[in-house]
Write a structure and sequence with these properties.
Part of the SCF (SKP1-CUL1-F-box) E3 ubiquitin-protein ligase complex SCF(FBXO9) composed of CUL1, SKP1, RBX1 and FBXO9. Interacts with TTI1 and TELO2; when TTI1 and TELO2 are phosphorylated by CK2. Helices cover 73% and strands 0% of the residues. It contains nine helices and no strands. Helix 6 runs parallel beside helix 8. The chain is elongated and about 55 Å long.
Length: 155
Amino acid sequence: MQKNSKRNNNSRVSDLELNAADAEKEKKEGQNNFVELLPPEVTFKIFSQLDIRSLCRASITCRSWNNTVRDSDSLWKPHCLTLRAVCQREIDNDVESGYSWRVILLRNYQKSKVKHEWLSGRYSNICSPLSLPEKIMYPMDADTWGEILEAELER
């Protein structure tokens, strides 16, 4: 019986040590997470300095960063307004439809890159569909193709 109670005491001690170690680890992680330590205004100021790629990477860093970045339209709106220079109609339609700025960016980012390449004349000398770089093409509506055709005709 004494052996059993001695084993139970050792078991309890090791459980307490593990719980203490877990609590200490969580405390250290919390101390390193500025999102939880700083006022929200400061956190948003820090995240607002990031470009699109860095903002997306920050959102996958941890759960608290994801919640902060994902739910903040004020972080995504400036990036969407930059895209609006290329995709004005698309962005305006998405705003009218009530999409969040993050979703608008997701819906239009790749399209704006491809549309910008077309409008800037990058593909002006393409002789056949086989010459088009397949990886960066993106489906576009008839109005967008009309804009691209007008730009080509002006060149």
